[in-house]
Amino acid sequence: MREWFTIADVLELGIENAPVSTKKGWNGLIVRAGWRDLDGKARQGKRGWEYHISLWPLEVRGQLMRVTAQEMIRERALVTETDQRTGPLWDVFKATSQRNRDAAAERLAAVEAVAARVKTGARKGEAITEQAAVSGVSTRSLQRWWDSVRDVPHADWLPALAPGYRPTAVFGPCHPEALATIKADFLRPEKPSFNACFRRLKKLAEAKGWSPIPSSRAMRRRLAAEVEQSVVATRREGRDMAKALYPAQLRVKDGLHAMQVVNMDGHRFDVMVKKPDGKVFRPVLTALQDVYSGKFVGWRIDETENKVAVRLAIGDMIERYGIPEHIVLDNGRSFASKWITGGQKSRFRFKIRDDEPDGLLTLLGVKVHWAKPYSGQSKPIERAFRDLCDDIARHPMFHGAYTGNSPTTKPDNYGARAVDYETFRRAAHGCLLEHNARAGRNTGTAKGRSFDATFEASMNDDATVVRRAAPAQRALWLLTAEAITARKPSGEIHLMGNRYWSETMIQHAGKKVCVRFDPDNLSLPVEVFAMDGVKLADAQAVEAVNFLDAEAAHRHERARRDFLKKQKELAAMHVTMTPEELARVYAPAMADPVEEPVYPTVTRLASAKGPAAPAHERAEWSDEDEAAFINVTSLMGRKLMRD
User: Fold this and answer.
1) 194-208 and 176-186 helices, crossing angle to 10°
2) Confidence (pTM)
3) What is the pLDDT of residues 212-229, one digit of tens each?
4) What pLDDT sits at residue 564?
5) What digits encode the pLDDT tens for the residues 281-313?
């Protein structure tokens, strides 16, 4: 609705009860009222000073609102005639070529001239003959044009006069069952040729007496006119081809930031690799990509797409960059595993139980979104996988190991060799890093930068908030080895040909423990848990060294001396009494003094017939007795300390 008016606009209305009726009067009123000093109420435009409708007096304002409403009604009614004509004539005319439109305009001018001559009293035949000479066309052509618009409204003469226009396609007669038969035969997934379909139809029509049957060319034109190309694509090419006829959805990433949304999928490389044990296979990359930047943020390479690789790839991403808010997955067995997405109510694979354990993503608070299966457009990572086919699978390092992306595209040197597995893993790792660092990306967020630069810029933005995992959460994505016995006497752990040890493990020597580890990086510390789930220690890897490596021997000796020194200091903290002090503590109290016997004054000698009285001898405490006593008390003290 119009809101700004000039003095000229008000004067044009000729309002009788207005306060003033001249331009000078209005200028004086406006100056006295100070309209031009009001912010947002007065402005200078191309037509001079304009004033908001709220400033004008009430009687003027009402008239202005009525006039504005009438203008709006007229503007809505003033739609071009061409836009109003949506009948078949105008639909075909809009779709025709510019050359046909120009020809229709010339014909319309000639027919309009004939109509004008007839209105002035001329006879139709004479008017057509005279106008034909003026327009430079034959009389019969002009007569035909005149006849073609005889029953057509004048407003639709222009499309009716366009060359080649037919209201509907005109075809020769055809037996209805014959037409239905050839349509059903031609529109099959086997994609039979039209000529073969028509030959079968001719034989069938002769046997059943169907008539009439048009010629092959006429039947072909009729099918082309009646059956839409989308139907032909759906029936003959399949659903995927029909889906391509509908434009893909464009999803912008401007409202996202790095590590807000990631998507994950697996890709089997078209390269044969060989493990040391002789097994030959095509490795699988399990990768995560940041949706905002397009950067690969975590990946693992394994023999298959499995839940172990998925857990470790997610763990790599979390350790480097943090925990995302959302993740897009398909419902493959490895991704929909309860160890990954357990507890997610939207999972579309496996039975969801109320008592199932929460998966890794559920425990980390990541919202899982399930992509449409077999739909590459649903996950941006599929586009990146296509680049990896050139960057990795067809790399010169893997000459002779490339298999082609289908059985029909095998190269001539198919099966010539298989690449060493570790060599392939190192090369693929380097290619993925180069993929992230390559500049000149033309995505909506990169704008010529690399994926790495785009990701880093977003992560450094103050508005970007990414959760970080606590060190204790690392155990969620590491593998578990059950019931490993800590070796006596040191408590060291032997796992996959490696040794791990921590001082704490001495207390658990000979006991069974649970170990969590990264199978692709066995040099990292492993987390050791008791069988009831209580964490015991982080055991460091004990490296194996060369037999003649003197420097390694010196390092080991220094470490052992430090360990022994520490144990001595710990012992000093606990044992605060010397053996002598302990012996004195446990020494028995002094024996009671022996009373001398009291004899009577008068004694009588023993009878010669009885046995002689034994001589009273006092026992002596020898040095041997003292040493034995100290030894016993020392042993008792040690036993008490152990208990």
Assistant:
1) 150
2) 0.55
3) 999 999 999 999 988 998
4) 72
5) 999 999 999 999 999 999 999 998 888 888 889
Give the whole-angstrom CA distance, residue 421 versus residue 267.
16
Do the Cβ atoms of 393 and 404 come closer than 8 Å?
A: no
Instruction: Kindly tell me the burial class for residue 298, based on how many C-beta atoms sit within 10 Å of its own C-beta (0-12, 13-18, 19 or more).
Output: buried
Task: Give domain status of residue 589, yes or no.
Answer: no
The token pair at 146 is 């005149």
CATH at residue 143? 1.10.10.60
Residue 49: count of CB within 10 angstroms of its CB: 15
pLDDT of residue 197: 94
**43, β-bridge pairs:** 50
* Radius of gyration of the chain from its Cα atoms, rounded to whole angstroms: 50
- In the chain, the amino acid numbered 419 is V
The C-alpha atoms of residue 297 and residue 295 are separated, in whole angstroms, by: 6
By CB atoms closer than 10 A (0-12, 13-18, 19+), residue 363 is middle
| pLDDT at residue 450, as a whole number | 96
Domain count, the chain: 5
The yes-or-no verdict on residue 79 having pLDDT over 50 is no
Residue with tokens 């309209």: 35
Q: Is 169 helix (H, G, I), strand (E, B) or coil?
A: coil
Q: What tokens does 463 get?
A: 């508005």
Residues 354 and 394 in one domain: yes
Residue 488 in any domain: the answer is yes
270 with 292, same domain: the answer is yes
**Domain range spanning residue 148?**
83-160
